[in-house]
Design a protein that fits this description.
Length: 131
């Protein structure tokens, strides 16, 4: 049986995105089952427009150039890699309701569900992370 990795993405900046998608792609590439629950600001990471221009912490702008020089994939590329590797994306229904957002505001291929949906996956996860 494959190991399971459950990730909660509740923050929406560039660094948060790299943490979430780096772990997700690494786990999926090593044949682990991965689900990410995007809630609150974490929804930015899968928003059709938001994930293309995520905020960088003040004073850390030099990292953007460093990512490029080191040939680190962009967030849109990591999102595609995650999807190709079978990572499940769950957008938090409650947060979407609070923010007045519909499923069509997000990238294709996400599921929409509440905490119970994520907990059903995470209940027997081998690794659980929050970013």
């Amino acid at each position: 049986m494959a190991k399971k990795v459950a990730i909660i993405a509740s923050n929406g900046g560039l660094f948060d995105a790299y943490k979430v998608f780096n772990i997700a792609t690494a786990a999926a590439a090593t044949d682990q089952e991965v689900a990410i629950f995007f809630t609150f600001e974490g929804l930015n990471l899968i928003h059709k427009e938001g994930y293309k221009q995520l905020p960088v912490p003040e004073g850390k702008e030099h990292f953007v150039e460093g990512f490029s020089k080191a040939n680190v994939p962009s967030i849109p590329e990591l999102v595609e890699m995650s999807k190709e590797l079978g990572v499940t994306f769950i957008g938090c229904q409650m947060t979407m309701d609070v923010m007045g957002l519909e499923k069509d505001a997000f990238i294709d291929g996400i599921e929409v569900g509440g905490a119970v949906t994520f907990l059903e996956f995470a209940k027997d996860a081998d690794v659980t992370l929050t970013f």
